[in-house]
Amino acid sequence: MTTTDMNLEQKNGVNGDRDMSSTVVRGRKVFKRNLTRFAAALLAALASFVAGPNAALIRAAEANVARVTGKTIVIPGHGPVENKSQLIEFRDMPVSVREKVRALKKQGRSLEEVLAAKPTADYDANWGGFVIDGKKFTGLVYQGV
Where are the domains of the chain? Predict the structure, then answer.
């Protein structure tokens, strides 16, 4: 591959940094997502990042989903190559957990009761063993909603 086969386009991310880029390689669009699973999991540790008023992780994930098509190749900073459906899954996880925790907290449930409800259960097999387990993630979201 030569540099004439590639066209790099940098876009500012939701936090003002350059967290995404698009590249066209031999006529096929490739999307580079620098907000990696590892970085996203670490950033998700901040309750306000997921559940606070700005929910930057969710906004960034929504922006990523909006920028790709079903034919786009998504290259995370770490981990396997992905596609749009996997980006949607990544976006849906914090949204779903946040909404479940928010509803339980609105009902007056304590942190212990919310933890017992296991709002991350649908995602624990895929996401729960990475950096933050479901219990810790739930506690952080609980603090933020």
Answer: 3-144
- Phi and psi angles of residue 79, each rounded to the nearest 5 degrees, phi first: 95, 180
How many angstroms separate the Cα of 72 from the Cα of each of 6, 35, 47, 82?
15, 17, 31, 9
Q: % helix / strand / coil in the chain, to the nearest 5?
A: 50, 15, 35
E strand map for the chain: 6-11, 20-25, 28-33, 73-76
pLDDT at residue 97 is higher than 70:
yes
Q: How far, in Å, CA of 119 to CA of 122, rounded?
A: 8
Q: What does the pLDDT look like over 21-47, one tens digit per residue?
A: 445 555 566 655 555 555 555 545 455
- The 10 Å Cβ neighbour count of residue 10 is 11
